[in-house]
């Protein structure tokens, strides 16, 4: 499902127009992005949790030249953990 299909699905299920559904989806994505950039957790009970994980700096191998060792810098990564209800719905 892509964004346009998701907007259509939200509009059908909520009774909103497609334009309003797209605005709501964009607002949700923006709110999650802002919270994660502040390293805050976004928890939707039953659905899941969006959070930021820190990755340590480490050594890696150059894929084109496996003998060459390269330094991979520390970074942050957004992560989603599914909630119990979502896991149960997917595993039905």
Describe the protein's architecture and organization.
This protein is an alpha+beta fold. It has two domains: 1-38; 40-92, IHF-like DNA-binding proteins (HU Protein, Chain A, Irregular), CATH 4.10.520. It contains three helices and five strands. A hairpin with a 3-residue loop joins strand 1 and strand 2 (48-55). InterPro entries: Hist_DNA-bd, Histone-like_DNA-bd_CS, IHF-like_DNA-bd_dom_sf. GO terms for molecular function: DNA binding; identical protein binding; structural constituent of chromatin. This is DNA-binding protein HU-beta.
Short description:
Keywords: DNA condensation, DNA-binding. The protein has three helices and five strands.
Question: Could you outline the blueprint of secondary structure elements for this entry?
Answer:
Elements: H1 3-14, H2 18-37, E1 42-44, E2 48-55, E3 58-62, E4 65-72, E5 75-82, H3 84-90
Antiparallel strand pairs: 1-2, 2-5, 3-4
Helix pairs in contact: 1-2
Low-pLDDT runs of 5+ residues are none
The amount of beta strand, in percent, is 25-35%
The total domain count is 2
End-to-end C-alpha gap = 19 Å
Q: Please count the helical segments.
A: 3
Proper CATH architecture of the largest domain: Irregular
**Record field, number of beta strands:** 5
Query: What is the level 1 CATH name of the largest domain?
Result: Few Secondary Structures
Structural class call reads alpha+beta
Mean pLDDT: 95
Rg measurement, Å: 19 Å
């Amino acid at each position: 499902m892509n964004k346009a299909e998701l907007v259509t699905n939200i509009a059908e299920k909520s009774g909103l127009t497609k334009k309003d559904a797209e605005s709501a989806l964009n607002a949700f994505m923006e709110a999650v992005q802002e919270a994660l950039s502040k390293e805050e957790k976004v928890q939707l009970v039953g659905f899941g949790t969006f959070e930021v994980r820190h990755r340590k700096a480490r050594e890696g191998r150059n894929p084109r030249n496996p003998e060459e060792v390269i330094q991979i810098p520390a970074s942050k990564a957004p992560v989603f953990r599914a909630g119990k209800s979502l896991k149960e719905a997917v595993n039905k």
